[in-house]
Specification:
single chain, 258 residues, alpha/beta, Metallo-beta-lactamase, Chain A, seven-stranded mixed sheet, 28% strand, globular
Length: 258
């Protein structure tokens, strides 16, 4: 089984698990056309999406859901809160939904999926811990702070996908209205670079083979700031090099093979 991030930013987030049998989308926040283009880049254009797992209902995570339902009819794993929001927001009339509750575990072939609740301003948003062939990938985007539960779910992961959404100074001085700045900074909003640095400095176990930092704001952050800040803290604490990648908005990441 392989894992790749198809792109991540405040305007769209999609990732993919794939092997010779299954294509599993984790969120579909880009357009159908864009995701199909990325599948072509991965030499997967002749195959349909078999499953979609949703983290929450915001459009940058479900943008092409209705199109996938109409054209490819995948099985969709989601909480009821996310389904209700997606159906309402995208005017979805039908879909092959498989509802789970935050905290539930389920399996898709060789992929064991453990869901956990995250603090974000939607009903029942989730992060996930994926277990495949004895290795784990923890995935947590769109969360206002790192709860004790989230930190526990990040422990021991071989691969980590974590949000580093905004630089506090750039957000404060930036063009967003005060209401939007407050939404981003509050405990149901997004993680800052400082939040991530504090986690790496004080609680991260340092066991990851690969760290992906995503959902990086194109207005209130830069990839160079994210990379330098995170890597500096990691090197200072652990005295070793880390494989760290800041995910671009519209470019596939390094492929991980389990």
């Amino acid at each position: 089984m392989n894992f790749v991030i198809l792109g991540s930013s405040s305007s769209g987030n999609s990732s993919l698990f794939f092997d010779e049998k299954r294509l599993i989308l984790l969120d579909c926040g880009h357009s159908y056309k864009y995701i199909r283009e990325k599948l072509h880049e991965l030499s997967l254009s002749d195959r349909k999406i078999d499953f979609i797992i949703l983290t929450h209902e915001h459009v940058d995570h479900i943008r092409s859901l209705k199109t996938f339902i109409l054209r490819e009819n995948p099985v969709i794993f989601s909480t009821k809160g996310t389904v209700d929001g997606a159906v309402r927001g995208l005017k979805i009339e039908d879909g092959n939904f498989n509802i789970f509750k935050p905290g539930d575990m389920f399996e898709i072939g060789k992929v064991k999926v453990e869901s956990f609740i995250i603090p974000h301003d939607t009903p029942e948003p989730c992060g996930f811990k994926f277990k495949i062939n004895g290795k784990t990938l923890s995935y947590a985007l769109d969360l206002g702070y790192l709860t004790e539960l989230v930190k526990y779910k990040l422990e021991g992961a071989n691969y980590l996908v974590l949000e580093s959404n905004y630089d506090e100074e750039l957000l404060t001085e930036g063009p967003y209205p005060l209401s939007t700045k407050y939404r981003i900074k509050n405990r149901l909003g997004h993680l800052s670079n400082n939040d991530v640095a504090s986690f790496f400095k004080n609680e991260f176990d340092g066991k990851c083979e690969k760290i992906f930092l995503g959902h990086i704001s194109r207005t209130n952050n830069t990839h160079s700031i994210v990379y330098k800040n995170a890597l500096s803290v990691l090197k200072t604490r652990f005295k070793k090099d880390f494989s760290l990648e800041c995910i671009l908005p519209k470019k596939i990441s390094q492929i991980i093979t389990f």
